[in-house]
Amino acid sequence: VEVKIEVVIPEKERSKEEMSPNGKASPLIYKVNGTARHYHLEEHPIASNPYHNPKDVVEASVCHVKDLENGQMREVDLGCGKALLIKEGGEFHAVGHKCPHYGAPLVKGVLSKGRVRCPWHGACFNISTGDIEDFPGLDSLPRFQVKIEKEKVYIRASKQALQTQRRTKMMAKCISLSNYNLSSTNVLIIGAGAAGLVCAETLRQEGFSDRIVMCTMDRHLPYDRPKLSKSMDSHPEQIALRPKEFFRTYDIEVLTEMQVAAIDIKNKTAVFKDGFKMEYNKLLIATGNTPKALSCKGKEVENVFNIRTPEDANRVVKLATSKNVVIVGASFLGMEAAAYLTERAHSVSVVELEEVPFKKFFGERVGRAVMKMFESNRVKFYMQTEVSELREQEGKLKEVVLKSGKVLRADVCVVGVGAVPATGFLKQSGINIDSKGFIVVNKMMQTNIPGVFAAGDAVTFPLALRNNKKVNVPHWQMAHMHGRIAALNMLAHGMEISTVPYLWTALFGKSIRYAGHGEGFDDVVIQGDLDELKFVAFYTKSDEVVAVASMNYDPIVSKVAEVLAAGRTIRKRDVETGDMSWLTGKGS
């Protein structure tokens, strides 16, 4: 028996992710130096035949039908590129072999019930369609047709699809743009992070053809914000989630450097700081959070940064080169920045109120192992203390004074002491905000006001994994899913969120992966070797595993995420024995 795989991808999807499959372009509004400018593109031809060029197609025999058992995956080479061949339920499927997010090899991921989960960051793809079903990332996998002849498996594929290893889902276009009043829109999205962008893209993917406007205080189109502290010298165009052409092609209008000052719920109007007003039919609030600033003496001196933009990150790298850096706060941002700057700076010091980094999140033992890794890379820690003063010389930072009395030489300071939700403009709106400033939403990302949705770092929502407890999960993957759920419910799909939180951090070329929600954990069960930084840590509350973290132990976190996503309970005793049979469905 032979299996054949054929890639079916529209012409416009076969090149880069920004290419569109069809249609007209809308005005894309950019605010440049305070002036709104409108840009139009001419109509693009619609691709009618995905195989208009026979030279672009390759067909190859990749294995015998008996080479794969049910539940197995194999990376196969077609000569000009690779595909992922999967056998599940007696059927063969073939899709792209790399995760479109950061290129992880999906053959090392987790196959479960019709989808494959990325081993690095947890994105999930349907093995029949290639469609992305959980995040992070925006693009889906190319899908290849599989044929079986004489007990051999054949794959037929577009060479272009094999090379790009990604597919942008078909999207609708906006109609009758010329009839629109510039001060009104059907959907207004406040915030241009992952939640806002995924919301806009999902609306178009679902056939929504009315006007969509995104607005952001940033000067840039949506970008990969986690890279600001992981790869601090990245330029905006290098980390853009989509190129300018994408927004034009799919009629997603973006207002940059525009801040909303108030929401008039009664009249369905957003009031901007500059006095401009825009009416909406549906509203998504995805404003994220605002970094906390230091409150000590001298906080206004130059060269003290909250890393919020690419310009902030780039400036820190420039100032830190061969100089003395002080990081205030052993947070994810603070520790990632410390790791990145170590090779560039003369010295890097971390000041933290807790006893060890990440104690509340990863626990003391894992935190101490991470701290040891940093110390072996010349990072100096000053724990259980705070900054009392920032001293300057000619207006620029010179020294950081600690409450312990220690004085640290400092040419640049990065502040990573947490953040607060950017929801101050909603206080008089009537939208329900909790005591900490988070927007309260239900499982459909709806606020208490009809037609008003919220998503991302600024919300609390019911987490199915923790018996629908209202939680805040300020992580990149979750923001993507929030945006998708909000969009589907703007279209009245009645979709509830049930995703498992998944996050990662990159430190000195090593990654810690994490899935679940460990808030309030009372014990940590560790397998592996913390000293060797090869371990998996299970976070338990009472008798139940509520989260997992790992280092150099792939794909354990993705496996646990799949178990939790299936609604199965992992008991503490299951992980204490070291018996991993529960991962294959034999547990609770």
Automatic annotation (TrEMBL):
One of its GO terms (biological process) is execution phase of apoptosis. It comes from the Eukaryota. InterPro entries: FAD-oxidoreductase/Apoptosis, FAD/NAD-bd_sf, FAD/NAD-binding_dom, FAD/NAD-linked_Rdtase_dimer_sf, Reductase_C, Rieske_2Fe-2S, Rieske_2Fe-2S_sf. Its main location: mitochondrion. Keywords: 2Fe-2S, Apoptosis, Electron transport, FAD, Flavoprotein, Iron, Iron-sulfur, Metal-binding, Mitochondrion, Oxidoreductase, Transport. GO terms for molecular function: 2 iron, 2 sulfur cluster binding; metal ion binding; oxidoreductase activity, acting on NAD(P)H. GO terms for cellular component: mitochondrion. Transmembrane segments: none annotated. It is found in: Mitochondrion. Residues 60-155 form the Rieske domain. It holds the Pfam family Reductase_C. Induces apoptosis through a caspase dependent pathway. Reduces mitochondrial membrane potential. Belongs to the FAD-dependent oxidoreductase family. This is Apoptosis-inducing factor 3. It comes from Caloenas nicobarica.
